[in-house]
């Protein structure tokens, strides 16, 4: 694997790890490592911009579902600076839903655009 796809994969893994990190300082380090400062996430009629808004969304998720985790349900597919993967949210006794994420990274492999589709009918 060439260096860029490996960096993209590592940054996506760090991004998903941020969803599971309850220590706010560590979570923000993961967000900063994995995403550009002007990252844009589009999901379910919402547009989240920048590290602070993304971190706030993650903190809210953790507050509402303290024992739930984001996990990969597919490999990460990287083509150039584009990526896609599927994931799921799992709780202590049940699955919470599936998601399909696709996006674009900058030349350093950090996520700058993330499109998230949540729910049934995923590819």
**How much of the polypeptide forms β-strand, as a percent range?**
35-45%
Shape: globular
Portion in helices:
25-40%
Structural class: alpha+beta
Q: How many helices in DSSP terms?
A: 3
CATH architecture assignment name: Roll
Biggest pleated sheet = 7 strands, mixed
Number of domains: 1
What's the overall average pLDDT, rounded? Answer: 91
Number of strands: 7
Terminal Cα span: 25 Å
Structure, explained:
The mean pLDDT is 91. The protein has one domain (3-117): Roll (Nuclear Transport Factor 2, Chain: A), CATH 3.10.450.50. A hairpin with a 4-residue loop joins β5 (82-90) and β6 (95-105). The chain is 36% helix and 39% strand. α1 packs antiparallel against α2 and α2 (24-34) packs across α3. It is globular. With 123 residues, it is of the alpha+beta class. Strands 1, 2, 3, 4, 5, 6 and 7 form a seven-stranded mixed beta sheet that branches. The protein has three helices and seven strands; from the N terminus they run ααββαβββββ. It starts with a helix and ends in a 5-residue tail after the last strand. The longest helix is centred in the first third of the chain and has 18 residues, at 3-20.
